[in-house]
Design a protein that fits this description.
By secondary structure, the chain is an alpha/beta fold. It has one domain: Pyruvate Kinase, Chain: A, domain 1, CATH 3.40.1380.10. The protein has six helices and five strands. It has helices at 4-57, 60-63, 91-108, 120-127, 147-162, 211-287, and strands spanning 75-81, 112-118, 132-138, 168-178, 181-190. Strands 3-2-1-4-5 form a five-stranded mixed β-sheet, with helices on both faces. Helix 3 (91-108) links the parallel strand 1 (75-81) and strand 2 (112-118). Helix 1 (4-57) runs antiparallel to helix 6 and helix 5 (147-162) packs across helix 6.
Length: 288
């Protein structure tokens, strides 16, 4: 059994760790409320943007547009949303696991894979992969992201696609369902044709100044809405998973403190009993 000094040091160390995890839990809980409100409030906008993409995709002018026309895929780009810090449970691992499945599919289909990572955790993992090119790394956009924060990523994505460097772009992120439930989502960004669109959206449209300009500008803004919502969903999911992870860590620390305290009391009792036995033995030896 460890000595009382070692047990006291362990208890002190665990208590210090518990203070950190408890503070992180409170911070994450506070951030989660705001992130959840923002993510839920903007979902209606994202759903409307997706519906507009469906409407555009069935127009004759859009079917031949660069952003909508399907191509034979030789190179596919993945945009993954992760974090730059740990203690977030399986938040990063779930996204990376989904990415690995997609990369395996590309390998089987002889498709070249490229990645743009948001967050250092995703970037660190992709750098270790063979035959996968990391195009860019963006730091997380903070607790209050703005459209200006998203725009550099959007510009990069659109430029890579329009220049013909890739034939398809997929966005992998974590969708927020509830505090204890999150789901990894893989969304096709480009080509922008919605897979479930049908002809009931077909309408007669007049474009001004011309169809090419209007479709290009509108589609870019609608894709920006998809990326924007993915960032907000991921932010809420990260705070939720970090809050749960740090809460579990705090609970484990409490259990360890109880176990070590019991071991410390047992060690103290054993030491007291041994001392009493020695004192009694010494007294008997003097009386003999």
């Amino acid at each position: 059994m460890p000595s009382t000094i070692v047990l006291k040091r362990r208890i002190g160390s665990i208590r210090s760790t518990r203070q950190i995890t408890k503070a992180m839990e409170l911070v994450s809980a506070s951030k989660l409320r705001r992130a959840q409100q923002i993510a839920l409030r903007s979902r209606a906008y994202q759903e409307l943007a997706y519906e507009l993409l469906q409407r555009l995709s069935v127009l004759p002018e859009a079917k031949t547009h660069q952003l909508f026309a399907a191509k034979k895929i030789k190179t596919r780009l993945y945009v993954i949303v992760t974090s730059s810090s740990g203690l977030a449970g399986a938040y990063n691992a779930n996204v990376i696991k989904d990415l690995l499945g997609r990369l395996k599919r590309d390998q089987d289909e002889h498709v070249t894979s490229k990645v743009i990572a948001i967050g250092n955790k995703g970037a660190q993992f992709v750098r270790r992969l063979k035959d996968v090119k990391l195009l860019a790394v963006y730091q997380p956009f903070g607790d209050n992201p703005t459209a200006d924060d998203i725009r550099p990523l959007l510009n990069t994505v659109m430029k890579v696609y329009k220049d013909g460097e890739v034939e398809a772009i997929e966005l992998i992120y974590t969708s927020f369902i509830s505090t204890i439930s999150q789901k990894v989502v893989d969304m096709l960004l480009l080509p922008a044709a919605a897979p479930d669109a049908d002809d009931h959206f077909t309408t007669i449209s007049t474009f001004e100044p011309d169809a090419e300009t209007v479709i290009d500008q509108v589609t870019t803004r609608l894709i920006e809405a998809q990326i924007w919502q993915a960032v907000l969903e991921s932010l809420a999911s990260e705070h939720a998973m970090r809050m749960v992870a740090t809460r579990n860590a705090t609970d484990n620390a409490n259990e360890l403190i109880d176990d070590y305290t019991l071991a410390l009391n047992t060690a103290r009792q054993a030491a007291i009993t041994q001392e009493l036995a020695e004192i009694t033995g010494g007294a008997e030896a003097l009386n003999a």
